[in-house]
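Lab meeting, item 3. Inverse folding demo.
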């Protein structure tokens, strides 16, 4: 069993504990602080355990350059310039302390993905208790070391990452003082397709790195998320929006509240379905035990008659002796008169 991690608020993530469900706000506030606060409340109501934001500015994550290297050639953001895309999507830092205060007040966890040292320092100032490393930052070992030096739990997405790159990142965290690590399988496409989710990789990471694992899910619907939990994942991260009608860079692969709530319900039901090792009838099945097969008298029998295939049979329901005794009883003599339709009992034969 992979180790668990403990968040500072006492929440345990890992095997044997309920799945930890993260609602990623990302750019779904669409530039409105009021909408960002509304998203936090809606995520709580939809059953999320945590709301996550991203902490960067266009200038901390890239540069304002318009040459070919900074243009996106295809996909959801085809034609966008990186700097201008991040201008649209970023969450203003002056909001973030208030967003955290809102989350604290209503009882939903709050954390963020930093993208450079200044964002880590800022998140330390507002009191964030744990961190996310984004898939694209798996190769930024200096950033990972700096985050890990704060000695707080880290959840890292691993989209695009080779096993060697993940190994290097995990080693960087541990050497810098962080042992509370969780890894998320992730397909870094927007939206992703379930065909390339490769959840078997999630389980391999669990075995290889001995850490809690889960899925950062950019696919549409909840099939991937529910399957990940059923297969042994402990964390689900899903982009969350108020409505797909609110235009912003992330809305096309985000989940509105009613869908998110349905996903949470399905995940919780999947957890219950896993249950525990238990043989024999369940409480619900007890009423149906009577409809199993057993041995019945199917013709009137007189005392001294021999039991044969003509006068006893294995049939439903299950009130008689178990079928495994049928051959043993054949050829025995009846100890009393027995009516047709009586369940067979031990005292009926010598």
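The presenter then showed the designed sequence:
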């Amino acid at each position: 069993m992979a180790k668990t991690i403990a968040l500072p608020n006492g929440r345990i993530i890992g095997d044997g504990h309920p799945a930890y469900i993260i609602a990623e706000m990302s750019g779904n506030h669409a530039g409105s602080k009021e909408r960002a606060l509304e998203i936090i409340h809606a995520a709580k109501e939809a059953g999320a355990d945590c709301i996550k934001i991203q902490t960067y500015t266009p200038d901390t994550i890239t540069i304002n350059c318009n040459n070919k290297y900074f243009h996106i050639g295809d996909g959801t953001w085809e034609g966008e310039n990186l700097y201008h895309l991040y201008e649209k999507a970023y969450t203003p830092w002056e909001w973030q302390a208030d967003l955290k205060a809102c989350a604290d007040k209503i009882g939903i966890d709050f954390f963020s993905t930093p993208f450079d040292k200044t964002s880590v320092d800022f998140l330390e100032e507002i009191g964030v208790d744990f961190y996310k490393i984004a898939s694209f930052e798996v190769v930024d070992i200096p950033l990972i070391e700096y985050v890990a030096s704060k000695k707080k739990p880290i959840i890292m997405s691993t989209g695009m990452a080779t096993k060697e790159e993940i190994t290097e990142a995990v080693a960087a965290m541990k050497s810098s003082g962080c042992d509370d690590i969780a890894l998320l399988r992730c397909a870094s496409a927007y939206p992703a397709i379930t065909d390339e989710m490769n959840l078997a990789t999630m389980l391999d990471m669990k075995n290889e790195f001995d850490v809690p694992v889960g899925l950062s899910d950019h696919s549409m619907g909840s099939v991937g998320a529910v399957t990940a939990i059923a297969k042994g994942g402990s964390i689900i991260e899903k982009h969350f929006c108020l409505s797909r009608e609110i235009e912003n860079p992330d809305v096309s692969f985000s989940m509105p509240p009613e869908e998110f709530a349905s996903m949470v319900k399905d995940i919780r039901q999947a957890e219950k379905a896993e249950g525990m090792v238990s043989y024999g009838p369940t409480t619900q099945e007890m009423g149906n035990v009577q409809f199993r097969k057993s041995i019945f008298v199917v013709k009137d029998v007189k005392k001294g008659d021999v039991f044969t295939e003509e006068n006893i049979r294995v049939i439903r329901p299950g009130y008689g002796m178990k079928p495994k005794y049928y051959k043993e009883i054949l050829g025995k003599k009846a100890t009393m008169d027995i009516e047709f339709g009586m369940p067979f009992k031990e005292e009926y034969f010598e």
